[in-house]
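Hello,

Our lab assistant flagged a job as stuck in the queue for most of the afternoon. It eventually completed. Since we weren't sure the result was trustworthy after the delay, we are filing this so someone can double-check. Below is the sequence as submitted and the structure that was eventually returned. Let us know if re-running is recommended.
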Amino acid sequence: MARARTRHPGAVPVGHRNADRLSASRPEWRMSRAFATARVLRFGSGAPRRVKIGLVRITKLGHSCVRLEHRGAALVVDPGVFSEPDAAVGADAVAITHEHPDHFDLDRLRAAASAKPGLEIYTHAGIAVQLEELRDSGAAVHTVAHGDTVSAAGFDVHVYGERHAVIHPDIPVVTNVGFRVADSERSVFHPGDALTVPEDPVETLLLPVNAPWSKVSEVIDYLREVHPPKALAVHDGLLNDAGVGVYAKNLERLVPGVAYTRVEPGTADAV
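-- returned structure --
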């Protein structure tokens, strides 16, 4: 497995709101900043939804899976079981934040590797060791960790974060890394299942709005802390129409200055 070696300066891993209370009994939860909650696995898919952000095109493929395209190349993040079976097919590179099946599915990676010889896969060590069969078939598996910088599908990708947010004290916390994906003008940050605050500026935040590991007050505080010009909802598959409206109303009212959008199935262009 290839190991990314470039480290970006100034990166600080993020902790969760209950770090002080929990770290005494669970040292693996001890972290250094005040945002990032539990992790989990989750939900729904739908028709592809495309959003243009500057020169980068985003296609939302269900739950937390997104495809980022720029200058003819494509990077797919988190093709899990709640995304389309061909979510990663045609991608030049795939990035995986953590091991929960709503973000990581081996069958979808097999399909992507079959369609693209030499597919580049970027993920943390715990997942990378599960991908030997793909490496043997020609995929390039790169192990990344907090602080790394890599080039993937023509994007500059900075890696932030170390731990999934806490779902419950009795559920082990798994490794989670977020990806800040940038071209020369724009940046998009996918935190995975954590409320990680990157050190570098973010133009568009892929905001995990709803999960077993979070509550709306934490999502609001997180959006305030990052405070990007734009936020696009992800991790929203458990919400019905009423819930979508409640989240939108609160985020728009309590985080002024951020253009929050949740893209509906079938939407061709938004933001």
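-- support follow-up --
The delay was a queue issue, not a problem with the job. The result is valid. The chain has six helices and 15 strands. The helical segments are 19-23, 106-115, 125-128, 132-136, 216-226, 241-254.
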